[in-house]
Every structure is written in C-alpha cells, then in structure tokens.
Give the backbone structure.
Amino acid sequence: MNKQTLLLESNSHQETLQLAFQLGSILNKGVLITLEGNLAAGKTTFTQGLAQGLGVKEVVNSPTFVIMKEYEGRLPLVHIDAYRLEGISQDLGFEDYLDESSVVVIEWANYLEFIDEYDPLHIKISVIDEESRMISLYGDQELIERLKSTL
C-alpha cells in the first residue's frame, strides 16, 4: 500500500473541526486513526469533528478516565485514550474493534505496541500558537487524495 503525507495548518478550533469533519464524511469503511500531540493540542477536538462527519449525534468528549467510549453513527466510532496505559502489557481486547466496520481513534497510541500492525492513519497535531495548529496526516495514499479533493 502506498503512503502519503499531507500537512495542513489550522488557524482555529473551527478549522480543526471542519478538517476532521471532512475526513469523517469520506470514510466508507473501518479505519484505524492514531492521534498524536501534546496535552491540549486538539486531539479531542479533532475526534469531535470526525464524529460529526461520521454522523454521530452524541456529545464526544475525552475518554481519559474511562479509557474507551463507543458512539453510533454512519460507521461506529470507538474512541480510545491510551494515556493511562503506558507500561501495561496485558491484552485489553482493543484488537477486537479493529475491523472493517468501525472507525477507531486512539489518542496516545504510542503506548500500545500492536498498533503499527494495523496500518493506521497517523495524525500528529502540533501547536504553533494559542489558536494555530499544524496537522500532519500520514497513511494510505488513496484516502489522503480523497481528503485533499474535499478541502
């Protein structure tokens, strides 16, 4: 599978939501998305926009304390926050959600060793200043091209 990188600058909370909405709206099968970024970089904001693009009607918030939340939409959304899982080696069953029917978003995925086996779409959100973010997407070339055509 060919890979591609897309760099986008977001200059507001709303622009980040819109970019993620566009991504969610073009997904037509399950995909694994890893979200990387410092605390308060906008990972949950991105997930909220993605959920809207998937047709999720519920309020999406960070699963930091519960580790995982599930939402129903055009495609089911599974939102995992692995921040509290650093150093845990036991099988938590997350692999059961990595199929063609669900979109799985994992924040702090670097704490989970098995992730790269599933060929995720890696998204890194870097803080430029209080409002602006650099959003880097790396993954399946076809998906990146479809996203670019909607922007």
Remarks:
- The beta strands are 3-10, 31-36, 68-71, 77-81, 103-107, 121-127, 133-140.
